[in-house]
Amino acid sequence: MKRIIGLMSGTSCDGLDIACCQFVNNAERTELQLEHLESIEYPPDLRDWIRGLTSGKISVAEVAQAHFRLGTLFGDWAFDHIRRHQLEGKVDLIVSHGQTVFHRPFMGRSENEPACTLQIGDGDVIASITGTRVLSDVRVKDMAYGGQGAPMVVWADYVLFRSKEKNVAMQNIGGIGNVTFLPKAGGVESVLAFDTGPGNVLIDEACRTLFERKFDEDGEISAKGTVNRPLFNRMREIEEGYVAERPPKSTGKEIRYHQQYRERLWKLREEFGCSPHDFVRTLVALTAWSIGESYRRYLGEVERVILTGGGALNPTLVAEIIAELPGTEIRKLDDDWTAFKEAIAFAVIGNEYLNGHPANVPSATGARKAVTLGKLSLPE
Prior knowledge:
- The chain is α/β, with parallel strands linked by helices.
- It is about 40% helix and about 20% strand.
- Strands 1, 2, 3, 4, 5, 6 and 12 form a seven-stranded mixed β-sheet that branches.
- Helix 5 (about 155-160) crosses helix 12 (about 335-355), helix 8 packs parallel to helix 10 (about 275-300) and helix 10 crosses helix 11.
Protein backbone atom coordinates (compact mmCIF):
# COMPACT_ATOMS: atom_id res chain seq x y z
CA MET A 1 0.00 0.00 0.00
CA LYS A 2 1.20 3.50 -0.84
CA ARG A 3 -0.17 6.77 0.55
CA ILE A 4 0.08 9.68 -1.89
CA ILE A 5 -1.16 13.27 -1.62
CA GLY A 6 -2.18 15.19 -4.73
CA LEU A 7 -2.13 19.00 -4.74
CA MET A 8 -4.01 20.93 -7.41
CA SER A 9 -4.38 24.65 -8.05
CA GLY A 10 -6.23 25.18 -11.31
CA THR A 11 -6.84 27.95 -13.80
CA SER A 12 -9.72 29.35 -11.74
CA CYS A 13 -7.14 30.33 -9.10
CA ASP A 14 -9.72 29.93 -6.34
CA GLY A 15 -7.85 27.62 -3.98
CA LEU A 16 -5.72 24.55 -3.38
CA ASP A 17 -7.27 21.08 -3.45
CA ILE A 18 -5.59 18.37 -1.36
CA ALA A 19 -6.39 14.70 -1.93
CA CYS A 20 -4.81 12.04 0.28
CA CYS A 21 -5.20 8.62 -1.35
CA GLN A 22 -4.17 5.05 -0.65
CA PHE A 23 -3.09 2.83 -3.55
CA VAL A 24 -2.74 -0.89 -4.02
CA ASN A 25 -1.13 -1.96 -7.33
CA ASN A 26 -0.88 0.30 -10.37
CA ALA A 27 -1.78 0.61 -14.06
CA GLU A 28 -4.86 -1.41 -15.03
CA ARG A 29 -4.82 -3.15 -11.63
CA THR A 30 -4.98 0.11 -9.65
CA GLU A 31 -7.10 0.07 -6.51
CA LEU A 32 -7.64 3.50 -4.97
CA GLN A 33 -9.22 4.57 -1.69
CA LEU A 34 -9.89 8.21 -0.84
CA GLU A 35 -8.63 8.91 2.65
CA HIS A 36 -8.69 12.65 3.38
CA LEU A 37 -9.87 15.52 1.16
CA GLU A 38 -9.51 19.23 1.81
CA SER A 39 -10.00 22.42 -0.17
CA ILE A 40 -8.27 25.59 0.99
CA GLU A 41 -9.85 28.75 -0.37
CA TYR A 42 -7.45 31.52 -1.28
CA PRO A 43 -8.09 34.83 0.49
CA PRO A 44 -9.02 37.63 -1.96
CA ASP A 45 -5.60 39.31 -1.93
CA LEU A 46 -3.79 36.03 -2.66
CA ARG A 47 -6.30 35.09 -5.36
CA ASP A 48 -5.87 38.45 -7.10
CA TRP A 49 -2.08 38.16 -6.84
CA ILE A 50 -2.07 34.71 -8.42
CA ARG A 51 -4.32 35.87 -11.25
CA GLY A 52 -1.93 38.74 -11.82
CA LEU A 53 0.86 36.25 -12.43
CA THR A 54 -0.86 35.08 -15.63
CA SER A 55 -1.27 38.60 -17.03
CA GLY A 56 2.04 38.53 -18.91
CA LYS A 57 3.00 41.87 -17.37
CA ILE A 58 5.30 40.72 -14.56
CA SER A 59 9.07 40.61 -14.35
CA VAL A 60 11.36 37.59 -14.15
CA ALA A 61 12.13 38.56 -10.55
CA GLU A 62 8.43 38.47 -9.68
CA VAL A 63 8.05 35.02 -11.26
CA ALA A 64 11.04 33.72 -9.29
CA GLN A 65 9.69 35.14 -6.05
CA ALA A 66 6.26 33.69 -6.76
CA HIS A 67 7.85 30.27 -7.41
CA PHE A 68 9.22 30.23 -3.88
CA ARG A 69 6.26 31.96 -2.23
CA LEU A 70 3.76 29.45 -3.63
CA GLY A 71 6.10 26.57 -2.82
CA THR A 72 6.13 27.78 0.78
CA LEU A 73 2.34 28.15 0.91
CA PHE A 74 1.72 24.74 -0.65
CA GLY A 75 4.29 23.17 1.65
CA ASP A 76 2.78 24.78 4.75
CA TRP A 77 -0.74 23.69 3.81
CA ALA A 78 0.32 20.16 2.91
CA PHE A 79 2.28 19.79 6.15
CA ASP A 80 -0.65 21.08 8.17
CA HIS A 81 -2.87 18.50 6.44
CA ILE A 82 -0.37 15.75 7.26
CA ARG A 83 -0.02 16.85 10.88
CA ARG A 84 -3.75 17.19 11.56
CA HIS A 85 -4.38 13.68 10.25
CA GLN A 86 -1.39 12.29 12.16
CA LEU A 87 0.36 11.13 9.00
CA GLU A 88 3.91 12.27 9.79
CA GLY A 89 6.29 9.74 8.24
CA LYS A 90 3.38 7.85 6.65
CA VAL A 91 3.13 9.65 3.29
CA ASP A 92 5.10 8.09 0.44
CA LEU A 93 4.85 10.98 -1.99
CA ILE A 94 3.29 14.41 -2.56
CA VAL A 95 2.43 15.29 -6.17
CA SER A 96 2.10 19.02 -6.75
CA HIS A 97 0.73 20.26 -10.05
CA GLY A 98 1.72 23.82 -9.17
CA GLN A 99 0.09 26.97 -10.50
CA THR A 100 0.18 27.37 -14.26
CA VAL A 101 1.39 30.84 -15.22
CA PHE A 102 2.04 30.03 -18.88
CA HIS A 103 1.16 27.14 -21.16
CA ARG A 104 1.71 27.24 -24.92
CA PRO A 105 1.51 23.73 -26.35
CA PHE A 106 2.57 24.75 -29.85
CA MET A 107 5.50 26.58 -31.41
CA GLY A 108 5.30 30.32 -31.87
CA ARG A 109 6.19 32.21 -35.02
CA SER A 110 9.82 31.07 -35.09
CA GLU A 111 12.16 28.37 -33.77
CA ASN A 112 13.02 30.79 -30.98
CA GLU A 113 9.46 30.40 -29.64
CA PRO A 114 9.19 26.69 -28.76
CA ALA A 115 6.22 25.02 -27.15
CA CYS A 116 6.56 25.55 -23.42
CA THR A 117 4.84 25.44 -20.07
CA LEU A 118 5.51 26.79 -16.60
CA GLN A 119 3.92 25.75 -13.32
CA ILE A 120 5.26 27.46 -10.21
CA GLY A 121 5.45 26.40 -6.56
CA ASP A 122 8.91 24.89 -6.15
CA GLY A 123 8.99 21.17 -5.31
CA ASP A 124 12.20 21.41 -3.28
CA VAL A 125 10.60 24.05 -1.06
CA ILE A 126 7.56 21.81 -0.50
CA ALA A 127 9.82 18.83 0.28
CA SER A 128 11.88 20.85 2.76
CA ILE A 129 8.77 21.92 4.67
CA THR A 130 6.91 18.59 4.66
CA GLY A 131 9.87 16.24 5.01
CA THR A 132 8.28 14.20 2.20
CA ARG A 133 9.29 13.35 -1.35
CA VAL A 134 7.63 15.67 -3.87
CA LEU A 135 6.88 15.13 -7.56
CA SER A 136 6.37 18.33 -9.56
CA ASP A 137 6.74 19.73 -13.10
CA VAL A 138 4.45 16.95 -14.25
CA ARG A 139 3.61 18.40 -17.68
CA VAL A 140 7.12 19.07 -18.96
CA LYS A 141 8.34 15.60 -19.95
CA ASP A 142 5.33 14.93 -22.16
CA MET A 143 6.10 18.17 -24.00
CA ALA A 144 9.78 17.27 -24.22
CA TYR A 145 8.68 14.22 -26.21
CA GLY A 146 6.52 16.24 -28.57
CA GLY A 147 3.24 16.23 -26.63
CA GLN A 148 1.06 19.14 -25.59
CA GLY A 149 1.49 18.52 -21.86
CA ALA A 150 -2.28 18.30 -21.59
CA PRO A 151 -4.67 16.92 -20.72
CA MET A 152 -2.96 15.19 -17.82
CA VAL A 153 -5.92 13.43 -16.17
CA VAL A 154 -6.28 10.94 -19.03
CA TRP A 155 -4.33 8.07 -17.51
CA ALA A 156 -6.32 8.29 -14.28
CA ASP A 157 -9.56 8.36 -16.26
CA TYR A 158 -8.49 5.23 -18.12
CA VAL A 159 -7.44 3.12 -15.14
CA LEU A 160 -10.36 4.19 -12.93
CA PHE A 161 -13.40 4.71 -15.18
CA ARG A 162 -13.13 2.62 -18.36
CA SER A 163 -16.12 0.37 -19.09
CA LYS A 164 -16.53 -2.81 -21.12
CA GLU A 165 -20.20 -2.06 -21.77
CA LYS A 166 -20.34 1.60 -22.86
CA ASN A 167 -18.33 4.28 -24.61
CA VAL A 168 -17.61 6.72 -21.78
CA ALA A 169 -16.73 10.42 -21.97
CA MET A 170 -15.19 11.83 -18.80
CA GLN A 171 -15.96 15.55 -19.02
CA ASN A 172 -14.14 17.75 -16.55
CA ILE A 173 -15.34 21.35 -16.25
CA GLY A 174 -12.78 23.40 -14.38
CA GLY A 175 -11.52 26.72 -15.67
CA ILE A 176 -11.04 24.92 -19.00
CA GLY A 177 -13.21 22.03 -20.19
CA ASN A 178 -11.48 18.77 -21.09
CA VAL A 179 -12.78 15.37 -22.15
CA THR A 180 -11.36 11.86 -22.03
CA PHE A 181 -13.11 9.43 -24.39
CA LEU A 182 -12.85 5.78 -23.33
CA PRO A 183 -14.06 3.41 -26.08
CA LYS A 184 -15.56 0.25 -24.66
CA ALA A 185 -13.68 -2.06 -27.01
CA GLY A 186 -10.22 -0.53 -26.84
CA GLY A 187 -7.11 -0.32 -24.70
CA VAL A 188 -5.23 2.79 -23.72
CA GLU A 189 -4.01 3.31 -27.30
CA SER A 190 -7.63 3.95 -28.37
CA VAL A 191 -8.23 6.70 -25.79
CA LEU A 192 -8.78 10.22 -27.11
CA ALA A 193 -8.60 13.31 -24.93
CA PHE A 194 -8.40 17.04 -25.47
CA ASP A 195 -9.52 20.40 -24.13
CA THR A 196 -13.04 21.16 -25.33
CA GLY A 197 -12.79 24.93 -24.79
CA PRO A 198 -13.96 27.21 -21.99
CA GLY A 199 -15.16 25.61 -18.80
CA ASN A 200 -15.89 28.08 -16.03
CA VAL A 201 -13.23 30.65 -16.94
CA LEU A 202 -15.55 33.07 -18.77
CA ILE A 203 -18.56 32.42 -16.52
CA ASP A 204 -16.48 33.11 -13.39
CA GLU A 205 -15.09 36.33 -14.84
CA ALA A 206 -18.58 37.57 -15.68
CA CYS A 207 -19.78 36.77 -12.15
CA ARG A 208 -16.83 38.69 -10.68
CA THR A 209 -17.12 41.77 -12.87
CA LEU A 210 -20.91 42.05 -13.07
CA PHE A 211 -22.08 40.66 -9.71
CA GLU A 212 -19.02 40.75 -7.43
CA ARG A 213 -19.45 37.01 -6.96
CA LYS A 214 -16.63 34.47 -7.26
CA PHE A 215 -18.63 32.09 -9.43
CA ASP A 216 -22.16 31.10 -10.42
CA GLU A 217 -22.91 29.16 -7.25
CA ASP A 218 -25.64 26.56 -7.77
CA GLY A 219 -26.37 28.19 -11.14
CA GLU A 220 -28.23 30.93 -9.29
CA ILE A 221 -27.14 33.81 -11.52
CA SER A 222 -27.47 32.07 -14.88
CA ALA A 223 -30.86 30.60 -13.93
CA LYS A 224 -32.27 34.15 -13.78
CA GLY A 225 -31.23 34.89 -17.34
CA THR A 226 -32.04 33.68 -20.83
CA VAL A 227 -29.69 33.00 -23.73
CA ASN A 228 -29.24 36.02 -25.97
CA ARG A 229 -29.28 34.18 -29.30
CA PRO A 230 -27.74 36.89 -31.54
CA LEU A 231 -24.90 37.33 -29.05
CA PHE A 232 -24.54 33.57 -28.64
CA ASN A 233 -24.25 33.11 -32.40
CA ARG A 234 -21.50 35.73 -32.57
CA MET A 235 -19.57 34.21 -29.67
CA ARG A 236 -19.96 30.77 -31.22
CA GLU A 237 -18.35 32.08 -34.42
CA ILE A 238 -15.40 33.28 -32.38
CA GLU A 239 -15.06 30.02 -30.44
CA GLU A 240 -15.34 28.02 -33.67
CA GLY A 241 -11.68 28.89 -34.27
CA TYR A 242 -10.67 26.57 -31.44
CA VAL A 243 -13.40 23.95 -31.76
CA ALA A 244 -12.47 23.40 -35.42
CA GLU A 245 -8.89 22.40 -34.52
CA ARG A 246 -8.54 18.65 -34.63
CA PRO A 247 -7.24 16.80 -31.54
CA PRO A 248 -4.79 16.38 -30.00
CA LYS A 249 -5.10 19.94 -28.77
CA SER A 250 -5.12 21.94 -25.58
CA THR A 251 -5.78 25.53 -24.64
CA GLY A 252 -5.70 27.77 -21.61
CA LYS A 253 -6.36 31.10 -20.02
CA GLU A 254 -2.89 32.33 -20.99
CA ILE A 255 -3.07 31.56 -24.71
CA ARG A 256 -6.76 32.02 -25.57
CA TYR A 257 -9.09 33.10 -22.78
CA HIS A 258 -6.86 35.98 -21.73
CA GLN A 259 -7.82 39.55 -20.94
CA GLN A 260 -8.01 40.66 -24.58
CA TYR A 261 -10.34 37.76 -25.45
CA ARG A 262 -12.59 38.53 -22.50
CA GLU A 263 -12.66 42.25 -23.33
CA ARG A 264 -13.80 41.34 -26.84
CA LEU A 265 -16.77 39.39 -25.47
CA TRP A 266 -17.60 42.13 -22.98
CA LYS A 267 -17.72 44.70 -25.82
CA LEU A 268 -20.05 42.40 -27.73
CA ARG A 269 -22.32 42.28 -24.67
CA GLU A 270 -22.64 46.04 -24.82
CA GLU A 271 -23.21 46.04 -28.58
CA PHE A 272 -26.02 43.50 -28.28
CA GLY A 273 -27.56 45.21 -25.23
CA CYS A 274 -27.33 42.03 -23.16
CA SER A 275 -28.29 42.26 -19.48
CA PRO A 276 -25.85 40.90 -16.85
CA HIS A 277 -27.98 37.83 -16.04
CA ASP A 278 -28.53 37.07 -19.72
CA PHE A 279 -24.79 37.45 -20.38
CA VAL A 280 -23.88 34.83 -17.77
CA ARG A 281 -26.55 32.50 -19.14
CA THR A 282 -25.21 33.00 -22.66
CA LEU A 283 -21.67 32.16 -21.52
CA VAL A 284 -23.05 29.01 -19.88
CA ALA A 285 -24.61 28.09 -23.22
CA LEU A 286 -21.27 28.72 -24.97
CA THR A 287 -19.46 26.30 -22.67
CA ALA A 288 -22.17 23.66 -23.20
CA TRP A 289 -22.07 24.15 -26.97
CA SER A 290 -18.28 23.77 -27.11
CA ILE A 291 -18.62 20.46 -25.26
CA GLY A 292 -21.47 19.14 -27.38
CA GLU A 293 -19.97 20.26 -30.69
CA SER A 294 -16.60 18.70 -29.80
CA TYR A 295 -18.33 15.38 -29.15
CA ARG A 296 -20.26 15.53 -32.41
CA ARG A 297 -17.15 16.24 -34.47
CA TYR A 298 -14.53 14.04 -32.86
CA LEU A 299 -15.87 11.34 -30.55
CA GLY A 300 -18.39 9.28 -32.48
CA GLU A 301 -20.99 7.49 -30.37
CA VAL A 302 -20.88 8.65 -26.74
CA GLU A 303 -23.13 6.47 -24.59
CA ARG A 304 -22.29 7.79 -21.12
CA VAL A 305 -20.97 11.17 -19.97
CA ILE A 306 -19.57 11.56 -16.46
CA LEU A 307 -19.27 15.19 -15.37
CA THR A 308 -16.65 16.36 -12.89
CA GLY A 309 -15.14 19.65 -11.78
CA GLY A 310 -16.82 22.78 -10.46
CA GLY A 311 -19.03 23.11 -13.51
CA ALA A 312 -20.71 19.80 -12.69
CA LEU A 313 -22.14 21.52 -9.60
CA ASN A 314 -23.90 24.18 -11.71
CA PRO A 315 -27.43 22.91 -12.51
CA THR A 316 -27.93 25.47 -15.27
CA LEU A 317 -24.78 24.35 -17.06
CA VAL A 318 -25.66 20.68 -16.60
CA ALA A 319 -29.10 21.32 -18.11
CA GLU A 320 -27.52 23.03 -21.12
CA ILE A 321 -25.17 20.06 -21.63
CA ILE A 322 -28.11 17.64 -21.46
CA ALA A 323 -29.86 19.71 -24.15
CA GLU A 324 -26.72 19.55 -26.30
CA LEU A 325 -26.50 15.75 -26.00
CA PRO A 326 -30.07 14.38 -26.22
CA GLY A 327 -30.44 10.67 -25.58
CA THR A 328 -27.03 10.39 -23.87
CA GLU A 329 -26.74 9.07 -20.32
CA ILE A 330 -25.30 11.92 -18.26
CA ARG A 331 -24.29 11.47 -14.67
CA LYS A 332 -22.07 13.00 -12.01
CA LEU A 333 -19.70 11.36 -9.58
CA ASP A 334 -20.31 11.95 -5.90
CA ASP A 335 -19.35 15.37 -4.58
CA ASP A 336 -15.90 14.27 -3.37
CA TRP A 337 -14.88 12.95 -6.77
CA THR A 338 -16.52 15.86 -8.57
CA ALA A 339 -14.64 18.48 -6.57
CA PHE A 340 -11.29 16.72 -6.16
CA LYS A 341 -10.89 14.67 -9.33
CA GLU A 342 -7.87 16.57 -10.67
CA ALA A 343 -5.99 16.37 -7.36
CA ILE A 344 -6.80 12.64 -7.26
CA ALA A 345 -5.60 12.26 -10.86
CA PHE A 346 -2.22 13.73 -9.98
CA ALA A 347 -1.96 11.32 -7.06
CA VAL A 348 -2.52 8.54 -9.62
CA ILE A 349 0.34 9.95 -11.71
CA GLY A 350 2.52 9.81 -8.60
CA ASN A 351 1.60 6.19 -8.00
CA GLU A 352 2.73 5.32 -11.52
CA TYR A 353 5.98 7.22 -10.97
CA LEU A 354 6.77 5.19 -7.87
CA ASN A 355 6.17 2.04 -9.91
CA GLY A 356 8.30 3.21 -12.83
CA HIS A 357 5.28 3.24 -15.15
CA PRO A 358 4.37 5.87 -17.80
CA ALA A 359 1.40 8.07 -17.01
CA ASN A 360 0.87 10.12 -20.16
CA VAL A 361 -1.30 8.90 -23.03
CA PRO A 362 0.33 9.68 -26.40
CA SER A 363 -2.93 9.28 -28.33
CA ALA A 364 -4.29 12.15 -26.23
CA THR A 365 -1.32 14.49 -25.88
CA GLY A 366 0.47 13.80 -29.17
CA ALA A 367 3.72 12.72 -27.47
CA ARG A 368 6.06 10.42 -29.40
CA LYS A 369 6.04 7.82 -26.63
CA ALA A 370 4.64 6.98 -23.22
CA VAL A 371 6.86 8.34 -20.44
CA THR A 372 6.99 8.65 -16.68
CA LEU A 373 6.04 12.14 -15.56
CA GLY A 374 7.49 14.65 -13.13
CA LYS A 375 10.68 15.65 -11.34
CA LEU A 376 11.43 14.28 -7.87
CA SER A 377 12.50 16.48 -4.95
CA LEU A 378 13.97 14.72 -1.93
CA PRO A 379 13.96 16.08 1.64
CA GLU A 380 17.16 15.94 3.66
